[in-house]
Amino acid sequence: MVKTQFTQQRCAGVLLHITSLPNRDLGLDAYRFVDFLVEAGITIWQILPLGPVLKDLSPYQCLSAHAGNPNLISLQALVDEPWFISPASSIDLSNRKWVLNQAYRYFTAYASKEDRERFAAFCRDQFWLKDYALFQALRESQNESPWFKWSPNFRKREPQALKSAAKRLRILVEKNCFEQFIFFQQWLNLKDYANKHGILILGDMPIFVAHDSADAWIQPAYFTLDENGQLITVAGVPPDYFSATGQRWGNPLYRWDRIVADKFQWWVKRIGTTLKLCDMVRLDHFRGFESYWEIPASSEIAADGRWVKAPGAALFHALEVCYGALPIVAEDLGIITPEVKALRDQFHFPGMKILQFAFEGGIDNPYLPSHHVENCIVYTGTHDNDTTLGWFDSLPDEKRHYVYESLGFPTMSMPWALIECAFKSVARYAVVPLQDILALGSEGRMNIPGTAKGNWRWCFNWSQIEQDLPARIYHLLKNYNRLQ
């Protein structure tokens, strides 16, 4: 059983993915960022999914629901390992693939008995690792082509073909296992450092897996795929405030009848992995656990879909049996029905309130501070929004005036006026993207939903952190009773 944590006190968090750190990895910048959060009185560090990504870099289209992204491994920490015998000063850290290959060779040749035993234990304990490592090895040996384009013997996982491939690709398979060992070691060391300094990690779990993922290849019967691995139906959302035409995500949907018949074991294992890596987890697209938007794979537009019921309550009951009270945050944005709200509230999951959405539609707008409740997280914006300054600057003059009027004409300018509003809220949790804390414009935006290029690349540099910034944040948190 995984022990879970969920603070019940008023507190504040910062949203920043690992790839937005200056070195974009789990090295010294990550530890320095924890120190910054501690100095500022922040309690929660919210991140995006940690899985290995495809070429578009989206952390919501990962190659595995369990594996970590090897690109997040700190190469500097790796070359500082005692078994890495080349002097660190002689290593070109810009060549990531070479360094990881060299690290595997050195570990194999020079690691201590204790390190080798820890590696062996890790490989035994990760039920998903053997299949994932072979999946990645096959994918790399075939120029990274997606599994559903492989030859039938590999695509359909014929036992003799897989046995032969595992033997032929043994070194590559072992190297993939080694990289996961290093990732988990570095991540859990960072998490331990954060926890010991009073920082909880709020992770993120996409509801769906990518079509080109180890999960879909290993257990295709759980997904809406035909016998050749091709999509039958795909996930997405109808038109909403993020997109006037809706979004066709392209992920396979679940065959919930088969998952239910298996007593939700696929989900039990998935949640178990995530709860080992994070203290709390945000379930992306929570409404899909009540009803999901099913789009025929042959349709190119999301509007051709329909709503289909999902067994969310039965799933969460099964997860509670395994893990107790679930430290889950429900991403309840989009088209939210009374049934979705009832599912969220049945399990006491905090929902989300986005302040950038609060100033449309009049006094009934559910994102207005007057409609906040204690059991929710209030955000100025998320990774899918423009920065608060970018959003505000894009508004016409009369709308900007209305925003300030609605906030009671605060003395602070944007984005700090909206940050203060978040901290004032009755919501137990208030989370602010680092881009807003740094008062960045649209150049700091992380993602534009519905677009495939240019996203997930933003990162900050330490020169942007002004010396008095932690004290300013600490003062606001103290004023609004968010220190712990």
From TrEMBL:
Gene Ontology terms, MF aspect: 4-alpha-glucanotransferase activity
Catalytic activity: Transfers a segment of a (1->4)-alpha-D-glucan to a new position in an acceptor, which may be glucose or a (1->4)-alpha-D-glucan
Pfam families for the chain: Glyco_hydro_77
EC number: 2.4.1.25
Enzyme type, top EC level: transferase
Superkingdom: Bacteria
Alphabetical GO biological process terms: carbohydrate metabolic process
Keyword RNA-binding appears in the UniProt entry: no
InterPro entries: GH, Glyco_hydro_77
SUPFAM superfamilies in UniProt: (Trans)glycosidases
Keywords: Carbohydrate metabolism, Glycosyltransferase, Transferase
Family: Belongs to the disproportionating enzyme family.
Protein name, per record: 4-alpha-glucanotransferase
